[in-house]
Amino acid sequence: MDIFGIVINYNRKDKTYSIDEEEIEDQSVTRIMDAFSIHHALQEGNKLSPSVFLEKRKSSGTENIHGIIQPYKISM
Q: In this structure, what are the phi and psi dihedrals at residue 70, rounded to the nearest 5 degrees?
């Protein structure tokens, strides 16, 4: 299966999915995967240890990035 240029392999014997990260050429996809890995690790850390506290903070503004980039794409 190919999603966003990422090939996801299914192993029928083990009933597991895997991604060969060495085949990913798009750096933005690699960054997304890194961010997801960090997010997942923090979530698991919160479940396992009450000593990990995430600070409450305002959004960094990334929710607006699409609206900022879109006019540049249209003008090109």
A: -55, -45
